[in-house]
Design goal:
Blueprint: H1 4-23, E1 36-44, H2 56-62, E2 66-73, E3 77-83, H3 109-125, E4 130-136, E5 141-147, H4 150-162, H5 174-184, E6 190-195, H6 204-213, E7 215-222, H7 224-227, E8 234-238, E9 245-249, H8 253-277, E10 280-285, H9 290-305
Parallel strand pairs: 3-4, 3-6, 6-7, 7-10
Antiparallel strand pairs: 1-2, 4-5, 8-9
Helix pairs in contact: 1-3, 1-4, 1-9, 3-4, 5-6, 6-8
């Protein structure tokens, strides 16, 4: 009998990974460069060549300058830094951990995170690249060492399905999450940070330092209800991070206007922090189609490298 993680991986392979194979030119992993170079051949030096590539031993033997040619190593280590805090359990899925349709129907933020993580892991590991993960909340952290292959991706899906988060009275310490990622991923590689980035903006220096060593892609997962609260009348609102409860009249136009202004200001502050940190940033809403999201990410990455 298949398990829930196995069903999740099979569904994403059929609905997302297979469709990406037919719509993206070349392997998905070639959108990002690796970290090394391989020697391939020698040829005569030309004035346009970098003198650092001259092979002095061959030059001395042949009495003519020769340079080494290299092929860039496309294999890399990708890390998934995954926010498992209580605020990520907000939305239609409410802790479903990847049981949504994956076709654009509204899901919980944790479900979207799980599907993004599993898809990215599968896409990279199929090319022989290694994928590791950091699962983080204030109370517990888990590091999954980088490996390749479908079995490893299935293990990641299983760990995501087991992850739970409860309020501990504090907002998510995103700076600590990024420090842990930097301490774990020591070799230069590609780091995906997937979070709702709710909390203090004290994570900017840690993100900047992470980006100085690695190529960092920050994916902010947002539920549409967080952007525009619907008119639900008088409701009891609870902060998933701190557990604080407030009685709010969502039918009050002034309340909704103030809330919207705060949301816009927070989104602008997060976007500005990511620009200053010089990382690639995307915003993904829980009602978006995952295939379109990933294709857009790859196309944007290719445009940046031209």
């Amino acid at each position: 009998m298949s398990t829930a993680p196995d069903r999740l991986l099979r569904r994403l392979e059929w609905q997302v990974v297979r469709r990406l194979d037919g719509r993206i030119q070349g392997a998905y992993r070639t959108a990002w460069r690796g970290t090394g170079i391989d020697f391939t051949d020698l040829r005569e030096y030309t004035p346009e060549d970098d003198v650092r590539h001259i092979d002095w031993n061959v030059t001395a033997r042949l009495d003519e300058p020769y340079v080494r040619e290299y092929t860039e190593d496309r294999e890399l280590t990708a890390w998934l830094v995954l926010d498992q805090s209580a605020s990520m359990r907000f939305g239609a899925g409410k802790g479903g951990n990847g049981n949504g349709s994956g076709s654009g129907d509204a899901q919980g933020k944790d479900s979207v995170l799980a599907e993004l993580a599993v898809c990215l892991a599968r896409l990279f590991s199929r090319g022989g690249n290694r994928v590791g993960a950091v699962l983080y909340d204030n109370r517990s952290q888990q590091v999954i060492p980088p490996r390749s292959g479908r079995t490893h991706v299935l293990h990641l899906a299983d760990q995501l399905s087991r992850a739970t988060a409860a309020s501990d009275g504090r907002t998510t310490d995103l700076a600590a999450m990024l420090h842990l990622a930097a301490a774990t991923a020591r070799r230069r590689g590609l780091v995906f940070v997937i979070s709702d980035f709710i909390g203090e903006l004290d994570w900017e220096p840690a993100l900047t330092r992470l980006g100085q060593r690695h190529e960092v892609v920050a994916i902010c997962v947002v539920d549409p209800m967080e952007l525009d609260l619907p008119d639900l009348g008088l409701v009891l609102v609870e902060d998933a991070e701190t557990g604080e409860q407030v009685l709010a009249d969502t039918s009050d136009p002034l309340f909704r206007q103030r809330l919207r202004a705060e949301v816009v200001a927070r989104e602008a502050a997060v976007a500005a922090a990511m620009r200053r940190a010089r990382v690639t940033a995307y915003r993904v809403t829980t009602d978006q189609d995952l295939v379109r999201v990933l294709i857009g990410m790859v196309r944007r990455s290719k445009r940046r490298r031209r």
